[in-house]
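Per reviewer request, we include the raw input and output of the structure prediction for the construct analysed in the revised manuscript.
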Amino acid sequence: MGQKTHPYGFRLGYNKPFKSRWYADKEYADLLHEDVKLRTELKDKLKSAGISSIDIERAANKLVVRIYTARPGIIIGRKGAEIDKLKQDVQKRTKREVHIDIQEVHRPELDAQLVAESIALQLEKRVAFRRAMRKAVDSALRFGCKGIKVRVAGRLNGAEIARKEWYLQGRLPLQTLRAEIDFGFAQAYTTYGVIGVKCWIYQGENIPRRGSKMQEPRESAAA
């Protein structure tokens, strides 16, 4: 069996930040379950907004939810009506002071999670899997990524036996710690069963500064 390491977990704390940023002693399990449930519900509720990831920060009784989306207008709504409604809904559920920060993903073609979800959506609409994969690969390369790999697995084209198909273009150094690898996973619920979609996108190398790996450089004393 191959020994696989998750591309995000491998680089966590080195050139990838934590998606939940808070500290707790006794309430750790409750807060962890609250984070998982909140992410799941927001992803389901805002499915049409193209959610890439959701970061959560906690401080005392405050909760900051940072949503990275390709279509921020859907979440914000006209004159901010939708985001106010969403904020009140989260406050009721968590009973905390909630602040929602919307961050736009400017190039969704280079976001692995959005690419995987786009392919899954096309498979659900009965688009040929090879066509959907090639389209995603070509778009990413056109927008300047250095390498992309896309893999689908399941009953492709309604075949009786499940199989895996993948495309790789460019470089994909998964063993290199400083490589800026973005990973995404999605599932397509088709007539024939569930088809899994995975996507890896390589955008170059990010070399952290020496010392504390995720901290910003301190201002010099002379300044």
